Amino acid sequence: MKKIAYIFANGVILTPACALIIFSGSLLYDMYTHVTVPFAHLSPLDDQQLGGVLMKIIQEIVYGSVLAYVFFKWYRRERLTEHVEYPQGYEPQEGMNTPPGNWNRA
Question: Are the C-beta atoms of 41 and 65 separated by less than 8 Å?
Answer without folding.
Answer: no
